Input
Amino acid sequence: MQFKSARSYAPLSIVAALLAMALKFGAYFLTKSVGLFSDAAESPVNLITALFALWALTLAAKPPDTSYAFGQSKAEYFASGLEGALILVAGIAIAFEASQRLFHPQPLEQIGLGLGLSVVATVINGGVGLILQRAGRRLRSITLRADAQHLFTDVFVSLGVLLGVLLVKFTGFLVLDPAIALIVATYIFWTGVRLLHETGAGLLDMALPEAEQQIIADILADYEKNGILFHALRTRVAGSRQFVSFHILVPGDWTVQSGHQLCEEIELRIIKALPGTNVVTHLEPLSDPISWADRDLDRIT
Output
């Protein structure tokens, strides 16, 4: 399954969230396991964020206009930020419930059927997570990557909970159920913090990854061998869009046509190497002192 837009994957995420939520809460009500509750409690987060992601991806897909000249791709960060915040809330709720059960253990019921439902939900989450992860990388969508990361977290959490319930069944130690739930809550909380950190970095116009910065540097190095210089090189990421800007310094006796052709050539090389990147160049004469007034911007930031 491969779509051309990130928005097309949102309905898949919504359907998966609905199915997983029904199965996981069914497993919890059957078994009364706080471990399975900890697994199920995160399912509404998946549904809420999937619905919000649909809105964010729809907004981010809109082309630039007079009101938003750079587009609205940063709308994706609202979705990933909400997901991170709700994951934190889920982690706290799970920890509270598990701590109560830790001091008042309760026997588990209908373990076989409950675990069967949980396994089906885990398989659904794992499959959809893999699809969203690949699409997120291909389309450079933080929203899809955040959804995939959350679903993979669900998978690992579910496996841990399943192990805990099985241990309770075969050992009879009821305290293992809430103990593993507390471990799960800690992992969920950490995942939420990590998502919020990535969201904050995007909202603050974080630079392109080092590997992509190096691609740009290698392209510019080819021209520096011929005496062309560059400075005020800056990059930033805004959702699925990337922006690069820099100044090109050439001999002052060049014609406007020659300078323009060079700018176009360099811009096209960068766009070809990094598809979807918006590249802006500014041509300056090497011999003019004013051209060097902004040399302190001579770094990728």
User: Anything to note?
Assistant: The mean pLDDT is 81. The longest helix spans residues 142-171. Strands lie at 229-238, 241-250, 277-285.
